[in-house]
């Protein structure tokens, strides 16, 4: 039987957000890993057409539980959600079993405290005796306890930023990316409670032998896709004597390849993968130390 047709129990299951800020990025990551899938409208599950894996579309808050309980082998979710879940489990005396495999290059935001315009804020101590609205009570309580602040935490499931206007809270603790939602609601950011981005988590249970090969391959591909983001392949010609200066200038590159140029005396070709973007300023500096014919190319795939 072709492995893509394996029985359901032998197929990898990956939980991703059904509809929200992480959905497109998660699907894009899996597509870049080579996955082909078809998804009908409002479908909760879809089948990988060329890999023995299925995607489960769920609310992001349910992803840690599905992975913890081994209903899904892997999950893509925000660090803010797993940290909140971890602290909630801890409060109930349950230990977190799912493992964080790696951080992913999307979903960046921060959980921050914001006060209404006109609120006199001097330090975190200004929060004493205040009511703070949030969807993340456990993370917020940890922040307050670590600083010995006594405040009332008002738990809301959404629309946190309008709580001060409704008279339900004095301060808000919510996710922020550009800050425009706060500004539109006349709120001012005063503290960062935690930084967040999407992460890949996996089940605590050893993965069944039939699924291990694809798990290993998928994790390697995800790592490859993450490494490629922002990476560039750079090629240039230079005098051999300039190699130390060039090595200093190439951002995040390891062991460049140096190839002699036929009939060009001391000049060599240098090829290197840079793990960061290469800016015009770097090219100008490379030219200044003797480089010529400098080419910067995008990297499409990488396998360490
Ligand atoms: O239905 P479901 O429960 O799955 O979705 P959700 O409404 O809980 O989540 P969603 O789609 O809003 O966010 C999913 C994840 O994206 C979050 O858990 C974070 O890890 C990440 N993320 C990144 C964000 C933001 N950026 C973000 N800006 N999540 C929410 N926001 C909201 C924030 O709550 C506020 O309302 O965007 C607003 C602020 O944005 P700015 O740009 O105006 O600052
Ligand atoms: Zn959610």
Beginning-to-end CA distance, first to last residue: 31 Å
| Average of per-residue pLDDT values | 93
**List of distinct ligands in this structure:** phosphoribosyl ATP, zinc ion
Helix content: 25-40%
Beta-sheet strand percentage? Answer: 25-35%
**CATH architecture type of the largest domain:** 3-Layer(aba) Sandwich
Spell the H/E element sequence: EHEEHEHEEEHEEHEEHEHEEHE
The total count of strands amounts to 15
> pLDDT under 50 segments (min length 5)?
none
CATH class assignment of the largest domain: Alpha Beta
**What is the count of distinct domains?**
3
Q: What is the CATH topology descriptor of the largest domain? A: D-Maltodextrin-Binding Protein, domain 2
Number of helices: 8
Name the overall outline. flat
Please compute the radius of gyration using only Cα atoms.
25 Å
Features:
single chain; 304 residues; alpha/beta; D-Maltodextrin-Binding Protein, domain 2; Alpha-Beta Plaits; six-stranded mixed sheet; five-stranded mixed sheet; 15 strands; 29% strand; binds phosphoribosyl ATP; binds zinc ion
Describe what you observe in this structure.
The structure is a single chain. The chain has 304 residues and is α/β, with parallel strands linked by helices. The protein folds into three domains: 8-107 and 198-227, Periplasmic binding protein-like II (D-Maltodextrin-Binding Protein, domain 2); 109-196, Periplasmic binding protein-like II (D-Maltodextrin-Binding Protein, domain 2, 3-Layer(aba) Sandwich); 232-298, Alpha-Beta Plaits (2-Layer Sandwich), CATH 3.30.70. Helices cover 26% and strands 29% of the residues. It has eight helices and 15 strands. Strand 7 (131-134), helix 4 (137-146) and strand 8 form a beta-alpha-beta unit. The two termini are 31 Å apart. It binds phosphoribosyl ATP and zinc ion. Zinc ion (ZN) binds at residues 59-61.
């Amino acid at each position: 039987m072709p492995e893509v047709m394996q029985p359901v129990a032998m197929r990898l299951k990956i939980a991703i957000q059904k509809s929200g800020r992480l959905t497109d990025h998660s699907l894009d990551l899996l597509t870049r890993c080579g996955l082909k899938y078809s998804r009908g409208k409002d479908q909760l599950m879809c089948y990988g057409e060329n890999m023995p894996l299925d995607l489960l579309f769920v609310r992001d808050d349910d992803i840690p539980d599905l992975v913890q309980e081994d209903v899904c082998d892997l999950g893509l979710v925000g660090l803010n959600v797993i940290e909140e879940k971890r602290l909630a489990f801890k409060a109930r005396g349950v230990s977190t079993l799912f493992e964080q495999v790696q951080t992913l290059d999307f979903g960046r935001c921060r959980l921050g405290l914001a006060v209404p315009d006109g609120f006199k804020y001097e330090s975190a101590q200004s929060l004493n005796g205040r009511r703070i609205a949030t969807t993340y009570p456990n993370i917020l309580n940890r922040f307050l306890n670590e600083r010995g602040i006594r405040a009332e935490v008002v738990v809301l499931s959404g629309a946190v930023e309008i709580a001060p206007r409704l008279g339900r809270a004095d301060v808000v603790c919510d996710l922020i990316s550009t800050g425009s939602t706060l500004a539109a609601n006349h709120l001012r950011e005063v503290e960062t409670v935690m930084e967040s981005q999407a992460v890949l988590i996996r089940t605590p249970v050893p993965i069944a032998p039939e699924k291990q090969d694809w798990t290993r391959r998928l994790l390697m591909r995800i790592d490859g896709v993450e490494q490629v983001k922002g990476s560039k392949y750079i090629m240039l010609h230079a005098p051999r004597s300039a190699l130390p200066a060039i090595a200093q200038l190439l951002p995040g590159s390891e062991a460049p390849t140096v190839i002699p140029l036929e009939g060009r005396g001391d000049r060599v070709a240098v090829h290197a993968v840079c793990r960061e973007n290469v800016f015009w300023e770097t090219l100008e500096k490379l030219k200044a130390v003797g480089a010529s014919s400098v080419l910067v190319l995008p990297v499409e795939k990488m396998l360490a």
